[in-house]
Specification:
By secondary structure, the protein is an alpha/beta fold. The chain has three domains: 164 residues, Rossmann fold (3-Layer(aba) Sandwich), CATH 3.40.50; 82 residues, 3-Layer(aba) Sandwich (Rossmann fold), CATH 3.40.50; 111 residues, Rossmann fold. 36% of the residues lie in helices and 18% in strands. A six-stranded mixed sheet has the order 2-3-1-4-5-6, sandwiched between helices. Helix 11 packs parallel to helix 13. The chain is elongated. It starts with 5 loop residues before the first strand and ends with a helix.
Length: 400
Amino acid sequence: MSVNNLHIGIFGRRNTGKSSLINMITGQDISIVSNVPGTTTDPVKKSVEIFDIGPAILIDTAGIDDLGEIGSKKIRKSQEVIRRVDCAILLIAGNQFGDYEVKLIEQFQKNEVPYLIAHNKSDIDKIAAITKSAIRRHSRAEIIDFSTIDPADKERLIAALKQIVPEAAFQKSSLIGDLVRPGDVVLLITPIDSEAPEGRMILPQNQTIRDALDNKCITIVITDIGLPDFLKLGITPALAITDSSVFGVVAGTLPEEIPLTSFSILFARLKGSFDLFMEGTRHIAKLKEGDSVLILESCTHQNSCDDIGRVKIPKLLQQFTSKKLHFTVVSGFSELPPDPSAFSLVIQCGGCMITRKQLTNRLKPFVEAGISITNYGMALAFLHGIFERATCIFTKRAGV
């Protein structure tokens, strides 16, 4: 499942037909359909190819009107999904439109999620003029009256969905396309340490290799241990890219005239707000005694003694600042701390496992609170004293 696929969330009250809608679009019985309210609990994902839209991930959520303590937890999980999707379908039925739907619309607008409103079960009860008027008091989104049991309505729904899909969701940006030319030698330095998965490359390394090949580059992959032997060959790369964890070693070995950056910094440019990361990284030098630092991992993984986010970065930060700092780590899509202002700095991982939209919305509360943000690669480059070298290839391109 590609993390760059379009993410589409299906939201609404219980028994509006969200699961039936998923099944209609996919043509499969993916989500359990039942007349019993609250059948869907945790969000259910399904990867599907939608004609005229492309590869997408549909996310079926629990009803926003669920009851009780468990119901509240379901609702919270459904609301969290809003920050992760590229667009949404707000499903209503039986001409029900009220506070539940208005709150969802407010969340869509707050997170800048384009959406449409679909009134389901039109075979039983068509949408009324009074319902449309109520909707129009809160939203200008397109309204569709349809039924999941009518095959013709599937095409109508997909056509409407196509109109709200953000163009950015389809843009296939290159990691290094503007940094190299066809025929250039690109050197990828990938350590094989305790964090390296058994028998395979990690996603950023895989994607960078493919991107270099797509840009018709001569791609050479070595470990940090093999770097001295490579340099003896007399080959001068147009660009060297390394894992952030060995930034210091590589920078000390690689000749200064060879442009150097990291996989994490490339992903910061691809998926994050690069200028904010650049500015936020320099805040490391301003950290004070007792400051709190939040480290955001976008995936969950087994921790090791060499863990870059939980071990290496905190250790280097303490050494660099000579201050006692407090660290909080949040992994995957776990709930964020309630008070963004409690932190002096946020360090986001490369974000290879999430979409640009997901990363942007995850950092949004901190940006709005004026908290400095950076990412693993930039932070490590700064802590190793090679920040300017690791980012100058981008600033020169931008004319900075």
